[in-house]
Specification:
Length: 349
């Protein structure tokens, strides 16, 4: 019904201005519409009371404003909330709201349905890639979570490899950064990649965002096993791209390191990690592997984590131990989807 119309949430601020100029409208109309959509959460043109009736009618003939409601919300004892959204074609994606200190919250969002990269520690990888998310489907995760309270930071760490959906992710970033919309500064948004090197370089050329690299291993042999993408872009190439990634003063690249018992949690690994990150303004997040059904991998011994972290700290590295939040609600990405789809067959598209 709405397919021939333009979803305004798919448009970057520039594209919105262009769309409106096609209707003979001035640039300030784009600012008004951005405020209605993203600051006030309006999804109907009728509510845009500072636009003339004729303009509202014209808009509703050519455009619409999508919105998403979670089909399922799981709340954890530590305040983490996980949302599962069913998309127009019946596919599902999820987002996680993670409470931070002093009433702040971070939202972890998805960029694809499933993922093509097949990392062995990740449940999403086992589904394969279904499709890319549209920009609107990315920003609608933020709109939905904001209805439950403010979101201070956004991380692209949910389902999917954001750089495998580069154009739509850049469009979503431009929407999130729009002054008259959400107005997130680039310092409040982090994009996490498994290491698609050419796209990392392109991202750095085109837009500012905090970069996180899902590293998880310190040798090509182990990383090839855990993350097949490493066979295309081995550690040396990945690290070269990190060294060249443009950083603002005081900005660091975050390296995510999921610690897996007996696989990557030895002191020899810590030693290699220090070498790999030499010369990079880096921050290391150590995350214990969250054991889940269907995976033979195990979490690390607490002493191994402590020894690993101490080794890094003693060498003046920034190494933060992250509790996996939401332990009781399917915390690893893809687990909620996995559970839901086992319970009920996917709806026919
Ligand atoms: S960890 Fe990320 S890149 Fe790897 S399979 Fe999962 S979603 Fe894809």
């Amino acid at each position: 019904m709405t397919n021939h119309k333009t979803d305004l949430k798919n448009l970057t601020p520039d594209a919105l201005r262009e769309f409106l100029s096609g209707l003979g409208k001035e640039d300030f109309r784009a600012r008004q519409i951005l405020r209605w959509i993203y600051q006030r959460g309006v999804t109907s043109f009728d509510e845009m009371t500072d636009l003339s009736k004729d303009f509202r009618r014209e808009l509703s003939e050519r455009a619409w404003i999508s919105s998403m409601q979670p089909e399922l919300t799981e709340a954890s004892g530590d305040g983490t909330r996980k949302y599962l959204f069913r998309l127009e074609d019946g596919q599902t994606v999820e987002s996680v709201r993670i409470p931070m200190e002093s009433e702040r919250a971070t939202l972890c969002i998805s960029s694809q349905v499933g993922c093509a990269l097949g990392c062995s520690f990740c449940l999403t990888g086992t589904f394969g890639l279904m499709r890319n998310l549209e920009p609107a489907e990315i920003v609608n995760q933020v709109c939905a979570a904001m209805r439950e309270g403010p979101i201070n930071n956004i991380v692209f760490m949910g389902m999917g490899e954001p750089l495998h959906n580069l154009e739509n992710v850049i469009a979503a970033l431009e929407i999130l950064y729009a002054r008259d919309g959400f107005d997130y500064g680039p310092r409040r948004v982090t994009l996490s990649t498994a290491g698609l090197v050419p796209e990392m370089r392109e991202l750095g050329r085109r837009i500012r965002v905090n970069l996180a690299v899902s590293l998880n291993a310190t040798s090509d042999a182990v990383r090839n096993q855990l993350m097949p993408v490493n066979r295309r872009f081995p550690l040396a190439e990945l690290m070269a791209a990190c060294r060249e990634f443009p950083l603002a003063p005081r900005q660091r690249i975050t390296f995510e390191y999921i610690m897996i018992g007996g696989v990557n949690d030895s002191i020899a690994d810590a030693r290699r990690l220090v070498k790999l990150l030499h010369g990079i303004r880096a921050k290391v997040n150590l995350i214990p592997f969250n054991e889940h059904e269907g995976s033979a991998l195990r979490g690390p011994a607490p002493e191994a984590m402590t020894a690993f972290q101490t080794y890094l700290l003693d060498r003046d590295m920034v190494a933060i131990r992250r509790a996996s939040k939401g332990q009781d609600i399917s915390a690893a990405c893809g687990q909620l989807k996995g559970r839901l789809e086992r319970q009920q067959p996917a709806l026919p598209a």
